[in-house]
């Protein structure tokens, strides 16, 4: 891991290169040849996937900047024509087409209400356009867990914790899953949806996520175990 500052260049090169938050691809003309470079736009720690196809900057920012293919949890704020305006915590609301669901047709499509939660994928993100969302997997075109999130509770946390929770090696969700059945959807926009059969389990989920976040104490696995014992779970 290395710290980067705005204006730094990173050696991000891949056939299927995907840039996440904090990075911008710029083109320069040198000796009549166009060269593409990846420039840092925010301070933080540079990270990349195992095959180096995905790069992003990890920072403590709570303002979400949409990036293509990222998973987000949004709140429907308005119905517009055949689609919806969705709050995903970014500077501008996102648009969600009514047909951007698995098997949706003009006669058969979801009827979302204002205030509904949706788990979606960012299909388009550009600084000069409002982001667009889709509620199906890009490759299989199946829902794969995307769509309306019914019941449960949404908890807000740092963007960095959300990325950690999506890592199968992170301790929190497996630890809680061994205690009681649960459903969790993690959005990279600083939102986590949780659901359990018992209300006290849902409360425990929320308390543990907040306590694991650095802003809430940054507890490790041992600390969470102790917290669960105090909650009588």
TrEMBL record:
Any Pfam family matching the protein: Rrp40_N
Gene Ontology cellular component list: cytoplasmic exosome (RNase complex); nuclear exosome (RNase complex); nucleolus
Record flagged with keyword rRNA processing: yes
Gene3D superfamilies on file: 2.40.50.100, K Homology domain, type 1 (3.30.1370.10), Nucleic acid-binding proteins (2.40.50.140)
Molecular function GO terms recorded: RNA binding
Main location: cytoplasm
Domain Exosome complex exonuclease Rrp40 N-terminal stretches: 17-63
Coiled-coil stretches noted in the UniProt entry, renumbered to this chain: none
InterPro entries, per database record: Exosome_RNA_bind1/RRP40/RRP4, KH_dom_type_1, KH_dom_type_1_sf, NA-bd_OB-fold, RRP40_KH-I, Rrp40_N_euk, Rrp40_S1
Keywords linked to the UniProt accession: Cytoplasm, Exosome, Nucleus, RNA-binding, rRNA processing
Keyword rRNA processing attached: yes
GO biological process, one term: TRAMP-dependent tRNA surveillance pathway
Highest rank taxon of the organism: Eukaryota
Domain K Homology stretches: 152-199
Protein's cellular compartments: Cytoplasm; Nucleus, Nucleolus
Family: Belongs to the RRP40 family.
Protein name: Ribosomal RNA-processing protein 40
Organism: Hebeloma cylindrosporum
């Amino acid at each position: 891991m290395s710290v980067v500052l705005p204006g730094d260049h990173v050696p991000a090169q891949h056939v299927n290169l995907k840039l996440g938050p904090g990075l911008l691809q710029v083109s320069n003309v040198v000796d009549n040849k166009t060269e593409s470079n990846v420039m840092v736009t925010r301070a933080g720690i540079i990270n990349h996937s195992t095959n180096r196809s995905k790069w992003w900057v990890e920072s403590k920012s709570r303002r979400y900047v949409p990036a293509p293919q990222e998973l987000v949890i949004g709140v429907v704020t308005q119905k517009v024509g055949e689609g919806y305006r969705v709050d995903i915590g970014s500077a501008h609301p996102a648009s969600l087409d009514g047909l951007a669901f698995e098997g949706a047709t003009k006669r058969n499509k979801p009827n979302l209400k204002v205030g509904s939660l949706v788990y979606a994928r960012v299909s388009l993100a550009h600084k000069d356009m409002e982001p667009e969302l889709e509620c199906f997997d890009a490759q299989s075109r199946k829902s794969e867990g995307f769509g309306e999130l019914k019941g449960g509770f949404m908890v807000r946390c740092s963007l960095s914790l959300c990325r950690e929770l999506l890592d199968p090696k992170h301790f929190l969700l497996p630890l809680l899953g061994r205690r009681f059945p649960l459903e969790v959807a993690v959005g990279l926009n600083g939102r986590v949806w949780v659901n359990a059969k018992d209300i006290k389990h849902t409360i425990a989920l929320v308390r543990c996520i907040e306590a694991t976040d650095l802003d809430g104490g940054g507890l490790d696995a041992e600390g969470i175990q102790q917290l669960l014992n105090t909650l009588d779970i």
